[in-house]
Every structure is written in C-alpha cells, then in structure tokens.
Amino acid sequence: MCSSDLGSLLAGSLDVNQGTVLFGASFAPSLPAGGGIVVANGGVIAAGSALSGGSTSGEHLVQKAVTLKTGAQLGSWEIDQGIRLNLAGSVTVQPPAGTPPAATVKLGGYVGTVVSGILGSTASGTVLTLANSQPGSRGLLAVTGAVDPTIGSVAVDGAGLLLSSVPAGTFLSAVNGGYIGIAPGSSGSAPPSAQSVIDRVGGNKAAFAGTIGFDSLRGASTPETYAGALDFTGFGSGLTLGSLTGAILTGPITPAGNTYAFGNGGGVLLLRNGGLGNAPGGGARSLSVVSSTTFSQNSLKLVLQSANSFTGGITVNNSAVVFDAAGAFPAATSRLELGAGAYAGFTEKQGMNGPGGLRSILNPANFPSFTLDGSAVIGLDSTQFIADVVANTSATSQAVRYVADRIDLSLLGSVGLGSATRATLLGTLAGTVQSGSRSLRLTGVDEGILEVRSRLTPANAGSLTIGGLTPLTMKGTVIIGGQNTYAGGTTLLSGTLRVDATQRTSGGVAVSGPLGLGAITVPANAQWPTLSASYQLGNTVLGNNLLLGSRLALGASNNGSISSSGQLVLTGAISDLTGGTGGIDVFSDTTLKGNSTFSGGVKLYSGVLTFGSSSSSTAA
C-alpha cells in the first residue's frame, strides 16, 4: 500500500501493478496533467483519509488520465474510509486482444468510485464487466460523465452502476443481481430520462437478472422525483425496481408480465403514481417486494402512497412495505405472503379497520391464500414521520403515532409486531399462542422505534422477545414502560431495549417491573444487544436475572436516536447461558448488585461503574 504527496511525485506516470495506492484529498486535485495512471490486474486505487485542508465533500479528485487493464480494482473494502475517488480525467479501459474485446473491472468500498470524465476503451465494441471485489458486498461505480461508444456494452455482475447520462452507444445488462441506477449528476443536474436508460438494455431483455434503480444525489436533503412513465415490456422475471439512496416515483408503471416487481438496493422508494392496477382487459396483476440476501444492507423499503386496485396478491421477502394511503392495501387482493424477513406496516391513512386495514391481516380467513413466515413482522407507522423524513432526509423526525386500539395476534402463527417509524402502543396487546402459552415479539424495523405502555401480563404475553435476526430487525429500538407481570422471561435477540419504568417490590419481593418477573436472556447469536434506561427516571432498578450467551451493551443508544443516559441498577444474578460465554460492555452509569458468575468480563467504555456486592464482579 502506498500513500504520499503524489502532487510532487507524479510529474510523469504511475503504474499500479500490484497492491493499493491511496489518493489523499490535499494533493489529488493538483496532480500534474502530464502522464497518467495505469492500473493492472491486482492493482487497486482508492481514496485515502481526509487530510488537513482537503476534501469537504467526501470525494478526492484525481484529474490525471486513468487506464484500467482487465482485473483492475477501484475502491477497497479493506481500507474503506467512507470517502470516494472522483476520476475527473479520461478513464480508458484497455482490454487484452480478443473478439469481442472484453475487460473486467472490480469494484470495492461502501461509497464506491465516481467517473466524472469520459469512460471509454482502446478497442471499439469493448464488453466491460463490472464485478464485486468482495463476495456479499456490492461495489459501486457512479458515472456522472459520458460513456464513449467504444464501450459497446456494460454487464453489471452483482455490482452497482449509477448513470447520470444516457449511454447512447452502449448496451446495458445485469447478471447475478447487478444494480443499474439512474441518478442526478454530481453537480446536482437533473437525472437523465429513466425510460431512455431503461431502453439501453439490449439483447435479450428477458435475460436481465438484476435491479433497475432510481436514486438521489448523494447527501441530498430530499429524494429525487421521477415523473415519467416507466415501461418494462419485454423484461423477464429477473427484473426488480429498487433504490440505493431513495427516490419518489410518480409516473405510471407497465410491469414485466403481470407482476409489479420491486426489491434490492437498501434504500426507500416512495410510490405516488396514482396506484397499481390490473392489466388492461382485467388480467390480475400482483405486487412482489423481494430483496436478495446475497448482499448486505440490501433490503428495499417501499412506501405506497396511492390507492391500489390490483387483485393478484402481495409477496414480501427480506423487504419492507408501508401502506401510507387510504386503499394502499388493495381490499380485493387474493393472496398475502409475508416471507422471511418481511415487514408490512400500516399508517393512519391506511387505517386499522375495514378492508385493507391492519386488522384485516390479523385474521388469515380474510384471504383466499395467506402465508406467514415466523420471522415476519407487521406494524404500525406514522404518516407524519414519513413526511418529515421526505422533507429532510438528514433530520430526525420527532413525530410519534399513538395507538390506543387493542391488537390481538392470537389467530396468527409466530409473528413480530413493530414499527419502521415511531409508534407508541397504549392499548392491550395479545400475543400469539405457541405450545399452549402466549408469546409476544416486539421490534423496531430498520432503526424504527416501538414503545409499549400497556401492561403485559401472563394472560396476554407469557414471554417476550425483542428484535429479530433478519436484516431489517437487527438495529431497531423497543421501549417498555409498563409495570408488567409476565413471568416467562425476556429474550433480547437484537437492537436496543430501553426500560422506562423501575421495578416494584413488596416485602423485598419483586411484584412487577418493565421486563416482568422472569430472566433476561441474551442468546449466543444475538446481534448488537443493548439494554438501556430512561434518562427521566434517575436510577432504574431491574431485579431480573441475566443469562448471557454473548456480550451485552449497557447504556448505549441506538445510533444516537434516543437518549439513554439514565443509570441502570441491576440487582439480579448475572451468569453465563448454558454453553455460552457472557460479557458486559458499559457505556453509561451502571450499578451491579447481584451475584455474578459470567465469564466474559466487563469492559468500561464510559460512565461510572459501581459494584454493589462482593460477588458482583468477574475478571475482565
């Protein structure tokens, strides 16, 4: 790896045959124009860390010409620092001899690489393949300049390509879940006609196996709106519509076949296009929102903000769908399938009652066909929260939806209850029935916050599970504020659990508390489990025993979205879960008073840690 003041070193050319060269912000813009940079197979160029006086836009500008031989790599996952290279000079692909000429460029880094110069080739008709440098992580190339017709075609193999102009002489294709997105230029110029880019998919459209995406300028305060009609006639079942960064679609959509297929990218796509209906002539159409689990951070969030009339059914897998308009959930749909990792949310506009309301999916008998995976989540969302985020994507909305209705999950199998925005439940909750007893799973979805203020008793929830192990349920927040008496225990699978009440005792015996009367279990496969207390209570006392199969964070907040500065006082015993190794990471004032035998030790990151009994500490 090499990183230095190349502004003084590169009077001529630089050949990167192996290893990595990092370009820092303080010198990259001033590179001499002479010579060029040649990247061969095994060579990597990427952005280095931001230096004093350097880039403030998250981009490091390279103005020299760049030549990419087959196997060259742009960006790096190993040293990714959230800063991307902007290749402002000409970028020329140099394929080896062959018919047709072909070259592969590998992509890495979370924010990818920008080509704002002209992307071309030394050989006319070159087939350029964009591939990922690391399995399971989608590399990204954003072309804000022009694509020269010497690039005959671009095949996106699992990677991502963003286009800010129509590649008029170049055909596009995608395989293995490749992503081809339409986006504004880096200067904020309007994106190209979406249909014009879609029409560049050449050859056999039916073989297209990836996502057409709609995106906004990186860091934009509001999502881009795409108003034109979208026609996908001729595409096959491998096509989905998605977003990496978020966008709004307002034009009519003609799907490939009879399925409106969405999914992939990990962004939020808002649909305000007047509704999705059946085919002309009455043929039933369906909605599919399915995101691949091959890539990390890939679950699409689709918000439907128009009334829909399609009747063919709804399928959701590893994705979220929020119904945010009266009639957004079509009353006449014949089938509902909430598969693995699915979320279906209902705002006030869609409502609780009547056809298409939340209560309609609480009874499987309302659908001719109903399938529910045990990891799926149904939920309640806030229209105002969504509106706030759309108005300013960088702001945190303070909108909360309060729901006083009773929510009864008795007729469903194992299912979670959550929110992708922020909702506070005031009415009675009745959990699902498993092996003769009720259980309740609560979760925030995609960093959403769900608060429960109603009481949880053995009659409506014998046990409680927080979070989930699917991509959308790993980093949410659940707030419990009631005096609860359920005794079956609490399992913290993932995310942040905040308690907004302190335990009550009578004669030295616990009679109620936010987490009931059973033990708190953190399994070995828990993801980012965090237990925190409300800052409004001062000391929050929990007498529940803790069984730790992995490390538990105390006092940490969920990405700063909620305050968690209150002091936790844990008076129960803390021990290893059978077969596991438990540990505690402390991030705010915490007191441990119970007998502790867990073996993973304590790590203090911030706050004051107080041991209240002679046996309440273990070797760190």
Task: Give a verbal description of the structure.
This protein is mainly beta. The chain has 3 helices and 60 strands. The protein has a 15-stranded mixed sheet that branches. The chain has a 9-stranded parallel sheet with strand order 36-39-43-45-47-51-54-57-59. Strands 1-3-5-8-11-14-16-18 form an 8-stranded parallel sheet, with no helix packed on it. The radius of gyration is 27 Å and the shape is globular. Mean pLDDT is 90; it is low at 3-8, 51-56 and 558-563.
Based on CA atoms alone, the radius of gyration comes out at: 27 Å
| Biggest sheet details | 15 strands, mixed
Task: Give the strand tally.
Answer: 60
Low-confidence stretches: 3-8, 51-56, 558-563
Q: What is the averaged pLDDT score? A: 90
Report the end-to-end length measured between terminal Cα atoms: 36 Å
Q: Helix- and strand-based class?
A: mainly beta
Q: In percent, how helical is the residue content? A: under 10%
Total of DSSP H or I helical runs spanning 4+ residues: 3
Shape descriptor reads: globular
% residues in beta strands = 35-45%
